[in-house]
Design brief:
- This protein is an alpha+beta fold.
- Among the domains are: about 120 residues, Immunoglobulin-like; about 30 residues.
- About 35% of the residues lie in helices and about 20% in strands.
- It is a single-pass type IV membrane protein.
- It comes from Mya arenaria.
């Protein structure tokens, strides 16, 4: 390990990603920036020199300048069971004043305590889905923040009855909006859980509605019974027992005429 902190700004700083297929040369760029006021000599080394080709593999970066190093992975037969342990190291040192005649000799003569180095891992992605984690982290945080703000805006208001946007016991007029999955919670099973929760809530409201209807029917029957029991018996008897005149099959004047005829007949017999 070097005792000095790396003076160059290296992008990417953690790993180099090579996207497949690996039937042809795959190139990954390594950007080296010199933010100091001194010239910096650099050299790129790898644990697998036969597998990679680096251009340029060494050089000098002027103050406030940068350079792009092309790291080319040579074609090979990819084996997913083979564990990749390839690594790169960017070694640097401050360049001496004046013109540099022989860089190789300079690297051989430099003192180890004046060297600076940075190590990077190699990631082989046959599907092409690998992304640098250091670049993705800020994007993920921004997306999570946006999702939380959207969830606060779309969440329905809660009433004292505990139901969103309606009174307790009333039928559901519309389905509430689905909640957004919080960070760290599995997204794949969230829609099924929301649907199941909504179905249970709808069934509960239907049951409560049925109970209200049954209570209303019982109250109507009870009110009818109380009305009947409070009615006077004489009035009920008068309503239920019709008069003899009303139940007769003939009107009253028919009986009067019959009485007159009978009276006339009886008078003639007596005379």
């Amino acid at each position: 390990m070097s005792k000095l902190e790396q003076v160059l700004k290296i992008e990417p700083s953690i790993e180099l990603s090579f996207k497949g297929p690996f039937t042809e040369v795959v190139t990954a760029d390594l950007r080296l920036t010199n933010p100091s006021d001194k010239r910096v000599c650099f050299k790129v080394k790898t644990t697998a020199p036969k597998r990679y080709c680096v251009r340029p593999n060494s050089g000098v970066i002027e103050p406030k300048q940068d350079i792009t190093v092309a790291v080319m992975l040579q074609p090979f037969e990819y084996d997913p069971n083979e564990k990749n342990k390839h690594k790169f190291m960017v070694q640097t040192m401050f360049a001496p004043d004046g013109k540099i005649e022989n860089q190789e000799q300079l690297w051989k003569e430099v003192s180890p305590d004046k060297l600076m180095d940075s190590k990077l891992k190699c990631v082989l992605d046959p599907t092409g889905n690998s992304v640098n984690q250091t670049a993705v982290a800020p994007v993920k945080e921004e997306k999570v923040r946006a999702v939380k703000q959207e969830a606060v805006k779309t969440e329905p208001p809660q009433t004292p009855g505990g139901q969103a946007g309606g009174q307790s016991g009333s039928p559901v007029s519309q389905v509430p909006s689905q909640k957004v999955a919080s960070p760290g919670e599995p997204v794949s099973r969230k829609p099924d859980a929301d649907v199941k929760s909504l179905q249970e809530e709808i069934q509960k409201l239907r049951d409560e509605n049925s109970v209200v209807k049954e209570s209303e029917a019982r109250l109507r029957k009870l009110a009818y019974k109380e009305t009947v029991s409070s009615t006077p018996h004489n009035y009920q008897d008068a309503q239920q027992s019709p008069s003899p005149m009303a139940t007769s099959a003939f009107p009253p004047y028919v009986y009067l005429i019959a009485c007159l005829i009978i009276g006339v007949l009886i008078g003639k017999i007596l005379l």
